[in-house]
Amino acid sequence: MLSAMTATPLPDLRRELAEICRMLAARGLLIGTAGNVSSRSGDHVVITPTGADLGDIEADDLCVLTLDGTQVGGALAPTSELDLHLRCYRDLDIGALVHTHAPKSTAVACAETVLPVFHYQQLLLGGDTPVVPFHPFGTPELAESTVRALRGKQAALLANHGAVTIGASLAKAVDNALLLEWACAVFLDARILGGPRLLDDEQQAAVIRAALTRGYGTTRPAETGNPVEQEQQ
Fold it and tell me: Could you list the active site residues?
């Protein structure tokens, strides 16, 4: 029982999660009490509480639960989207989940049935981003539909609601949330210009081959000589 709790476990992860929430709020992805974030450590999940202003949240405000939903740390009740988070941890191989009502992502979620691939960076999210049919927040139906949509993906949009991104780590789930918001912003701008122009399957495959060949997105030691000439040999 909560009254019997002593020190709340996972202090380092709670501090990291609180810092991430404040950063996402400063960047406009978490607005007031809207949105929730969690990260897994073994058989435990650290998650934001319900009704908290995530721009001001502190480590001590966060909840710690087991994967079956038993609360073992924190004095506040967890987010109303707890079932969505726990279902994703039980059914998907992930380390963290970020749910936002970020403006551009939410706009696309209110207007589209899918975010198609028009820029190669979207491949990091698993290609096109599905839009989960509308269900009220906190319901088993929303959790089930979201888990289904996220299989093979790193992001999903929730119709008339917001966005969810996942990752192997908290840092990766956050990167995916920022990338999704950027992609939705570009998509909306491209719509104004009469686009977007989509990348077909062949073009997407070519990007993947190029990324694997060049080690795209990773640092490596500098090469001696002319790297362009070496690549052409």
Answer: 81
Do the Cβ atoms of 47 and 79 come closer than 8 Å?
yes
Q: Are 156 and 164 a contacting pair, CB within 8 Å? A: yes
Cβ–Cβ under 8 Å, residues 25 and 54: yes
pLDDT per residue as tens digits for the range 13-37: 999 999 999 999 999 999 999 999 9
Q: What is the pTM assigned to this prediction?
A: 0.91
Distance, in Å, from the CA atom of 83 to the CA atom of 103, rounded to the nearest integer, reads 24
pLDDT tens-digit map of 110-169: 999 999 999 999 999 999 999 999 999 999 999 999 999 999 999 999 999 999 999 999
Spell out the alpha helix ranges (H) of the chain: 11-26, 82-91, 103-111, 140-150, 170-192, 201-214, 227-232
- Biggest CA-to-CA distance, the chain: 69
Structure tokens at 151: 């299989």
Of 152, 96, 98, nearest in space to 123 by CA: 152
CA neighbor of 122 nearest in space, from 139, 108, 142: 108
Q: What's the rounded Cα separation, in Å, for the pair 24 and 170? A: 12
Task: Enumerate residues 6+ apart whose C-beta is below 8 A from 127.
Answer: 117, 153, 204
> CB of 14 within 8 A of CB of 47?
no
Q: Cα–Cα distances in Å, from 229 out to 116, 210, 224, 233? A: 36, 17, 11, 6
Cα–Cα distance measured from residue 105 to residue 140, given in angstroms and rounded to the nearest whole number: 22
